[in-house]
Amino acid sequence: MRIYSKLIMLCKKILRRILPYSCYDRLRTFYLRYVIGAKTKQPSLKTDAKIIDLPFGINLFIYDTNNSGGVVGRLLQATLNAVEIPYQIIDLGHPERFNAEKENLMLYKINLVVVHAASGTQAKLHLFDIDFSHHYNIAYWAWELKELPDVFCSGYEIFQEVWAISGFCTTALEKKATIPVLTIPHCVNPDNSIIPDGRNYFHLEKDAFLFMFAYDCNSFVSRKNPQAVVKAFLKAFSPEETHVGLILKLLYSESSQEHVDELKKLLSPYKNIYYITQFLSYEEMRTLLQVSDAFVTLHRSEGFGLLPLEAMSLGTPVISTEWSGNMEYMNHKNAALVGCSMVPVNGQYVGSIVGDGLMWADPDIDEAAAYMRRMVFDQEWRESLISNGRYTANECFSAKNIGQVVADRLAFLKLKP
Fold this sequence. Notes:
With 417 residues, the chain is an alpha/beta fold. The chain contains 16 helices and 14 strands.
């Protein structure tokens, strides 16, 4: 098992480096459907579970990394710490380490597996030398479309319930689920420390009104829709309006150079355009959010949207598409919500194929541009968004409040003493 695990992880790393993301995703889908689906059918824990007498606590399966998966894991740790639920981390990225150290570990009663719904949960857990039927197994899933494609539904079979990161995700996931699906949203990061004099730190124009957008070029750029942010900025302001600017925080920009070059060409007549491509620490990212005058996300779909929530907590107002998981915490009093029409996904996202009927948002560029101008010139409105956004993020979505939701659920299931 350990050799098999190491080979799988090595192949994944090599293929991820040498293949375009679209090709890698198609290969992964084939593997999940025809290899794992055929060979590693797991018992249905809904009926076969025999939970043994283990101590109360959570085995937290997360990616202990610096990417978005690692961020989610750290927020869950903050959530559990806030209500004093014991836990231990099991790194999903290194099953061979767990298997080597298993004899020295005391496992808890609950397994909480933090993955994307399309990440091949069944394949990942198959690499761990654990009898899952001895635990209460919970998936903590994100999903960005209105329905989960059939190819990913086998993941339900190894859990007794699913926690979804937003009501939008819950509605999508429960359509094909035969187990409970509940909404347990992310908390806001309780650590809001920033670097002093942030604009100087990032070499940003001190007096310009700066909009910000951030995304990962190594993921599905079509879902994040950065072109819409750029088009709205171009429509809102002329090159002569040098009092405004745009920050684009890109991760893995080298994997989508043609896309980045296109954005640079569109924005070339403008001053105060900043491309930040290096990896940023958590403190640096918070600082960049805090020194920006507004955060803009014209996404086609979000499972939740962590960065907009963090921007709100730091006092940076948000302009956002009025659709999907971000509506868990956004309303017209705490964010500038941009209307949208619905258009076919048509294979532009994981699990989707042309003609499958899946839809996502096409935000109104004109309305977004109008909000950008208003954000600059209507100070009273902007300050009301800041005040309401801070309250929503820091009070309603605090680690303590979300942690209490978790504690109440575990108590209801009689898993918590």
